[in-house]
Amino acid sequence: xxxxxxxxxxxxxxxxxxxxxxxxxxxxxxxxxxxxxxxxxxxxxxxxxxxxxxxxxxxxxxxxxxxxxxx
Length: 71
Known about the structure:
By secondary structure, the chain is mainly α. Helices cover 72% and strands 0% of the residues. Helix 1 runs antiparallel to helix 2. The longest helix has 36 residues, at 24-59.
C-alpha cells in the first residue's frame, strides 16, 4: 500500500475513533498506536525526500568544457 493512501486511511481512523464507542483505556491505547504509526510514516517520508534530494544533487554537477589553449 502506498504511503499516501496509508496516511489518508490513518486520518480517517483518527476522525472516527472518538465516535466508535471504545472505553477510555482502549481509546487511549488506539490513539497511542495511531500516533506511533503516523510518526513512523512521517519518518519514511523524510527518508524518501532526503534520498531524492541527494540523488538530484549528484545529477547537477557543474560541467566545464576544455578550452584548447593558445587562443
